[in-house]
Amino acid sequence: MKQPLHTVRALADEIRMRAWKALEPGELCLCELIELLDRSPATVSKHLSLLRQAGLIEYRKEGRWHYYGRAKYAGASARMLGALDRMLDGDDAVRADKKHLNRIQRKSREELCQCYRKK
Amino acid sequence: MKQPLHTVRALADEIRMRAWKALEPGELCLCELIELLDRSPATVSKHLSLLRQAGLIEYRKEGRWHYYGRAKYAGASARMLGALDRMLDGDDAVRADKKHLNRIQRKSREELCQCYRKK
DNA sequence: ATAATACTTCGACAATTAACGAAGTAACGA
DNA sequence: TCGTTACTTCGTTAATTGTCGAAGTATTAT
Fold first, then answer.
1. Which of A2, A12, B16, B116 is the most buried (most CB within 10 A)?
2. Do the Cβ atoms of A12 and B9 come within 8 Å?
3. CB A17 to CB B3 under 8 A?
4. Helices and strands (H and E) in chain A: how many
5. What is the domain-level CATH number for residue A75?
6. Which nucleotide has its C1' atom closest to residue A62's CA?
7. Total structural domains in chain A?
């Protein structure tokens, strides 16, 4: 039961499912995900660490920035996750996130990460 | 986000994932699932009602017995659930359940459903 | 050095969920 | 009709999970 359950549980949360889907085209910096998901840095960080524990995403540090991206999947996992991607393509929230992410990525680094200075 | 999340959440529990997998070959009576999953009737019934709300299983009544079986899936859902089935095939707990279920199904109706008389 | 930035981890609290006994319902049997 | 059986729903309790502020860490800037 271990691995499939672990994988499914990791995706069984709105924030984590949206984050995972947002990483389909490529890696993102945490600050972009914070802005996209509209949660505190601590919360987003914790969700991503959960996805990481499940082996669904990886991350690399580049100076101060932490980039998260999908892991490589194989076998039945890959097929399951691929099918889930297709299920999510039609979803309203996912499409809203896509638009939102486009706007976010047009911003500069200075405009982003405002979340740390906001108060 | 609605449907895919609903589906994934329904499966994000050990008992429900085992129940769902146990229904792959065909429908089962609740008392068989109670014996298999080793939980109280109330607990098993509630888990199955959750799977039903997610559209993953259906049930029909035949006299006093309630038979649960998988729903028909289509499109990306079908592919996702099919891949999940393959992921689960290798799992130890799933294989133990298969053996256990074989033994359970050799029992008569009178031997089964002892769970209601046990105390 | 010192200060700021971009995060993560910790600790606390609130909300959600799993579990089951007890009470309720529907079907069958005497 | 009255009891029994097979189950569901309800109500409570315990455990888990989501959330975020505060404190901690690593990296860059001055």
1. B16
2. yes
3. no
4. 6, 3
5. 1.10.10.10
6. D27
7. 1
